[in-house]
Design brief:
By secondary structure, the protein is α/β, with parallel strands linked by helices. The protein has 3 domains: 9-136, Thiamin diphosphate (ThDP)-binding fold, Pyr/PP domains (Rossmann fold, 3-Layer(aba) Sandwich); 148-224, no CATH class; 231-349, Rossmann fold. It is 34% helix and 15% strand. It has a 6-stranded mixed beta sheet, with helices on both faces. It has a 5-stranded mixed beta sheet with strand order 1-2-4-3-10, with helices on both faces. The chain has a two-stranded parallel ribbon with strand order 5-6. Helix 1 runs parallel beside helix 2 (32-48) and helix 8 crosses helix 11. The longest helix has 18 residues, at 96-113. 40% of the residues are buried.
């Protein structure tokens, strides 16, 4: 493993993409402000179809904000990162063990589909502590480099190599630089199958459309490769708590307390944000009686995302944006408050964090 401290976030992501282009696995990490500088690099990764993994550790923003406090306020920045349409992967680890598991999983998927992958963590996880059974740590993870060409032979297109060959899956064989017979151009301009820049032909709309559709065909493969969310608890529960990322543990504790007090509750935790598996989520929530989305931000970023993708609107929201994470009693009290004042109107609870002196 080689670790480099680079001068800024623009240099970081470009160096990581360059390393990936040369054939190694590469990743970089930052927080929300630094990620803002990396977004142009994500577009380069997508156009060159060179995989790169980026970790964003969310903190309380905007700008420098409260850099030592946690929040889930970067979701929409991740969704819109990089201009133009291109496939990407976004996942939010649910606990510290999942941080360990998600990194190789994301590398495998980014390599396989030759696109950028984003791991959306937060300060609660990055600076948190957790006891983990060593048996749960898998150091023998399967490595899937996808269609990577590292040597020349008659079966992989020698002398007729097309780096961006149009395929049914949208995935084209990727040769690392220096493989004999596999010379090609990798650049940020649009290109044809050979890698020749179509801007040199004064733009070719037929080739442009063909390459755009080729890249977007990866989306179907990505959706099939990523597991959808699963409901935890009794499907017939009176309350369903929906969370994403690091809120998994605190919601689980709140569910246990509520069930112990006679309020039947289950949990739907979202790990994969892109792809979202909206149809799976709707199928799960179809039988839910009262749903509440729990998240650590002011505007309900996941709630808005879910609505934009599925038109689903929950019965209530619990949000916290004071820089501190949820405690179980915050969620328990908010659920009781909403059930007590049940109306046709969507309800919002904003728990107050107790200041310890």
């Amino acid at each position: 493993i080689m670790v480099r401290q680079v001068e800024d976030e623009i240099g970081v992501i470009n160096m990581a993409i360059g390393a990936a282009h040369a054939g190694v696995r590469a990743m970089c990490a930052t927080s929300g402000g630094g990620f803002a500088l990396m977004t142009e690099g994500l577009g380069m990764s997508a156009m060159m179809e060179t995989p790169v993994v980026v970790i964003d550790v969310q903190r309380a923003g905007p700008s420098t904000g409260v850099p030592t406090k946690t929040e889930q306020g970067d979701l929409w920045q991740m969704l819109g990162a990089g201009f133009g349409d291109f496939p990407k992967l976004i996942a939010a680890p649910t606990d510290i063990l999942d941080c360990f598991s998600l990194v190789p999983e994301m590398h495998n998927l980014a390599d396989r589909f030759q696109c950028p992958g984003i791991i959306l963590g937060d300060l609660l996880l990055s600076e948190g502590r957790s006891s983990v059974d060593p048996k749960q740590l898998n150091f023998d993870t399967k490595i899937d480099r996808g269609e990577l060409i590292v040597s020349s032979d008659a079966t992989n297109g020698k002398n007729t190599y097309k780096r961006y060959k149009i395929t049914q899956t949208g995935i084209s064989p990727r040769a690392i630089p220096g493989v004999p017979g596999h010379t090609h151009t990798a650049a940020t301009d649009e290109h044809d199958e050979d890698g020749v820049l179509i801007s040199d032909e004064f733009t070719n709309p037929v080739k442009r459309r063909a390459m755009m559709e080729k890249r977007q065909r990866k989306v179907a493969g990505i959706e099939a490769a990523v597991q959808g969310p699963v409901l935890t608890g009794a499907p017939t529960a009176d309350v369903t708590l929906i969370g994403w990322g690091s809120t998994q543990g605190v919601i689980r504790e709140a569910v246990e307390i509520l069930n112990g007090e006679g309020i039947s509750t289950n949990q739907l935790q979202i790990r994969w944000l892109v792809p979202l598996h909206g149809e799976v989520i709707l199928k799960i929530l179809k039988s839910s009686k009262y749903t509440i989305i729990v998240e650590n931000n002011y505007s309900g970023q996941f709630a808005r995302y879910l609505r934009s993708e599925t038109s689903y609107v929950p019965n209530g929201y619990i949000r916290k944006y004071d820089g501190e994470p949820f405690m179980p009693h915050h969620i328990v009290e908010a659920v009781k408050e909403q059930l007590k004042g049940k109306t046709r109107e969507t309800q919002l609870s904003v728990p107050m964090h107790e200041i310890m002196v």
